[in-house]
Amino acid sequence: DWTPQTIIEQAVSRIRQQVGGQRVLSAVSGGVDSSVATALVQRAVGNQLIAVFVDTGLLRHGEREQVERAFRRSLGENLIVVDAAADFLNALADVEEPEEKRRIIGETFIRIFEREARRLGKIPYLVQGTIYPDVIESAAPDRSKAQRIKTHHNVGGLPAEFDFELVEPLRYLFKDEVRIVGEALGLPEELVWRQPFPGPGLAVRCLGQITAERLERLRAADHIFTTELAQAGLLGRTPPGSPQRIAQAFAVLLPVRSVGVMGDQRTYQEVVALRAVTTLDFMTADWADLPHELLARVANRIVNEVNGVNRVVYDITSKPPATIEWE
Ligand code: XMP
Predict the structure, then answer these.
(1) Residue 261 lies in a domain
(2) Which residue pairs from 204-207 have beta carbons closer than 8 angstroms and sit at least 24 positions apart in sequence?
(3) I need a surface site. Which of 23, 118, 167, 229 has the fewest CB within 10 A?
């Protein structure tokens, strides 16, 4: 019978059996799966675990601090935070094409992670937050490839030359089970109930040129939108499958400027698009019919509080034909 406690106990004894007294490396992304997998391995092997968190500079508001808050106490010095924002900004300078962005981010991530791994010496095991739906998907490679229209980048996508043996404690769990296990492990709610976030991060929501200033603009707008949704009870810890649950919501910074008026001054500034969808499997999705007064409040706050933005629009396309992300 299924309780978080029995799952944790089973996973812990499997992990111990697999890795014995050896060291284990984990790449924490701040996402649910890698966080829960890391916490499980920590529970199993304590300070044999070393976790690396790469701050790409492409993260959402407060995300790095959340990861530190969740893991510093249990991992201490074994949590390594790599500040790589400048590396990513340099690598992405003048790149606008979406697939090119994804490729560069994937490569840059691997290069940085590789550097850290080398510094730590030989570590035979690597934690992966593979969950059951990922296992099924890779068992049908042709189908999933045909359906996959974007190059997905995930923290786990390391090249074979690394020669790690994988530790995959979530292999038999579905997403909502992973969240329940995460709660039982004492991970913070904000992390456990977090919406999915693409590996390439804000880069694929910052359309056109990626600069520190534009990323900051996007991050601020996104934070306003998601905070208002959470306060309205529409995002975060809601019962799985409940109809009003927003599966994913975020801001997108568009590569156009439009004319506006502020006081009696003409403005010529950037546009933020808001995206919110309901979906069960992310293969198809409906745009969320959000309360108008909430949309109005969010739009108002964004143009008033975010420098350089004078217009907000709401995305009312479903998937298909649109995808959830804009790039
Ligand atoms: P699309 O935009 O294709 O996205 O409708 C479907 C879901 O996948 C997420 N997504 C990604 N997740 N790495 C990820 O781990 C990626 O490169 C990536 N690209 C998109 C997207 O946020 C949505 O939940």
Answers:
(1) yes
(2) 204/98, 204/101, 204/102, 204/325, 204/326, 204/327, 205/250, 205/251, 205/252, 205/253, 205/325, 205/326, 205/327, 206/252, 206/253, 207/96, 207/252, 207/253, 207/254, 207/255, 207/326, 207/327
(3) 118
